[in-house]
């Protein structure tokens, strides 16, 4: 058997088994929970064997079945690196003739993807390693909310604002729909003033991670980042969920701040996001016309500007030399 597509009953059984691997397995556990809830429409779940599985991959049934922000996505999890190396190369598991965005893969898998890309003349324009940090204690206390500020949640009408804040960090098509989807389906924390203006926010993602922590440029230095981060952590921990987020592996200040706040590094949750672009197939009988060349270039540009939704970090620090006690108050989107 090359792979097996799981039905919902089997996915439900698999999801419960993954709880035993917390917190490292949280990154796939919540994806499968959302699959069962119907918020991962157009995906299928495949495993290398059943019930004695080693590897799990969520992939689109076909690219038209999933929303634009999830096209060409492969969300991976494996008990061992070796098993995933072989599974990714089994016939029919990955369509290497089309673009692919891999999320959840351990760093040791990168040489496999690099080798495939090299053999096929493709490109890997985007590789982003991340460390997983989670909250493993009792719910934290929420800092005092300043006068004139209200702690609330994001609303669907805030989607356009999120689009503006994160366009330069994670651009791409259908981004408005993505933000509306996460706002409507997942937990969030936000601060607004008396006028209803959005000052700061943080929002959950499809993989269950806390991400997109953002403080408006005019309101940094007031501790708003810490308030919403602890608010979200408290909300999730109180419900028995695993509060966690990803920090870029080169973001030393972000790592120090996560530790300062009491978050614990989870080595089993470390991962890389990899974007694979195959070598364009050129129909030389049609490349003579200007129109054909323009279409070819346009299609190639479209693949290269594909968004990396699940690679949104816990926060983006635009000032690497910012003092540690001000890190989350200056978290903004930046290119």
Q: What's a concise summary of this model?
A:
By secondary structure, the chain is of the alpha+beta class.
Regions with little confidence, pLDDT below 50 for 5+ residues: 296-307, 319-335
Backbone structural class: alpha+beta
**SS strand fraction:** 15-25%
Largest sheet report: 9 strands, mixed
**Helix segment tally:** 9
Q: Give the C-alpha Rg.
A: 21 Å
What does this structure look like?
The chain is α+β, with helices and mostly antiparallel strands. It has nine helices and 13 strands. It has helices at residues 8-18, 26-37, 81-88, 110-120, 159-166, 175-185, 224-238, 252-261, 290-304, and strands spanning 4-5, 43-47, 55-60, 73-78, 100-105, 123-134, 149-152, 188-193, 198-204, 210-215, 244-248, 264-265, 271-277. The strands form two sheets. Strands 1, 2, 3, 4, 5, 6, 11, 12 and 13 form a nine-stranded mixed sheet that branches. Strand 9 and strand 10 (210-215) form a beta hairpin. Helix 1 (8-18) packs antiparallel against helix 2 and helix 5 (159-166) packs across helix 6 (175-185). The longest helix is centred in the C-terminal third of the chain and has 15 residues, at 224-238. The chain is globular. The model is unreliable at 296-307 and 319-335 (pLDDT under 50).
């Amino acid at each position: 058997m090359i792979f097996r597509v799981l039905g919902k009953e089997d996915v439900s059984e698999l999801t419960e088994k993954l709880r035993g691997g917390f917190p490292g397995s949280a990154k796939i556990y919540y994806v499968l929970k959302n699959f069962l809830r119907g918020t991962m429409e157009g995906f299928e779940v495949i495993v290398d064997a059943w019930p004695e599985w080693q590897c799990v991959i969520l992939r689109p049934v076909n690219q038209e079945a999933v929303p634009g922000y999830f096209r060409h996505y492969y969300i991976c999890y494996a008990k061992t690196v070796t098993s995933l190396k072989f599974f990714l190369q089994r016939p029919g598991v990955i369509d290497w003739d089309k673009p692919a965005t891999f999320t959840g893969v351990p760093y040791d898998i990168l040489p496999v993807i690099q080798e495939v890309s090299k053999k096929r003349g493709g490109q890997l324009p985007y590789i982003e390693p991340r460390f997983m940090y989670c909250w493993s204690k009792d719910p934290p206390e929420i800092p005092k909310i300043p006068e004139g500020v209200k702690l609330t949640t994001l609303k669907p009408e805030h989607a356009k604002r999120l689009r503006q804040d994160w366009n330069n960090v994670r651009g791409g098509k259908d981004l408005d729909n993505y933000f509306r989807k996460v706002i409507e389906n997942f937990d969030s924390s936000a601060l607004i003033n008396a006028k209803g203006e959005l000052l700061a926010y943080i929002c959950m993602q499809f993989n269950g991670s806390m991400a997109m922590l953002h403080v408006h440029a005019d309101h940094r230095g007031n501790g708003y980042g810490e308030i919403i981060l602890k608010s979200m952590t408290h909300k999730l921990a109180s419900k028995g969920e695993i509060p966690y987020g990803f920090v870029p592996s080169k973001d030393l200040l972000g790592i120090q701040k996560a530790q300062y706040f009491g978050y614990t590094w989870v080595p089993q949750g470390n991962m890389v996001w990899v974007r694979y672009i195959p070598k364009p197939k050129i129909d030389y009988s049609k490349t003579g016309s200007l129109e054909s060349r323009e279409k070819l270039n346009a299609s190639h540009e479209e693949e290269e500007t594909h968004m990396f939704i699940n690679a949104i970090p816990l926060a983006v620090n635009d000032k690497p030399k910012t003092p540690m006690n001000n890190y989350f108050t200056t978290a903004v989107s930046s290119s």
